Amino acid sequence: MTEKKNPHRGSTLDAFLSEEGIHDEATTIAVKRVIAWQLQEAMAEQKISKTDMAARMSTSRRQLSRVLNPDDDNVTLDTLQRAAKALGHSLRLELI
Fold first, then answer.
1. What is the pTM of this model?
2. Residues 6+ positions from 16 with CB-CB distance below 8 Å
3. Hey, which bits of 1-96 come out as E strands?
4. What contacts 85, CB < 8 A, 6 or more positions away?
5. pLDDT (0 to 100) of residue 74
6. Which of 1-5, 23-27, 38-42 has the lowest average pLDDT?
7. How far is CA 48 from its chain centroid?
8. Rounded distance between C-alpha atoms, residue 52 and residue 82, angstroms
């Protein structure tokens, strides 16, 4: 019995995602999830409720829920910057 060779064996995740044509989409989802997680962690560390956080951002709790939902595609950079600032942080984007 012979084993079938895996064409992706030894390749990187980035290479695999590129071959599948989903690298950019996967990267975008990953970045959104990390930012949402970081905001939630900072809120938990500072014991800030969603209601208080929304008030700090001068927005609604519903809008904050969209910011914290990595699957929502309607979050602007301005909103992310306001969320970071409300927690005493800053948002940094860079081209690499």
1. 0.79
2. 8
3. none
4. none
5. 84
6. 1-5
7. 20
8. 14
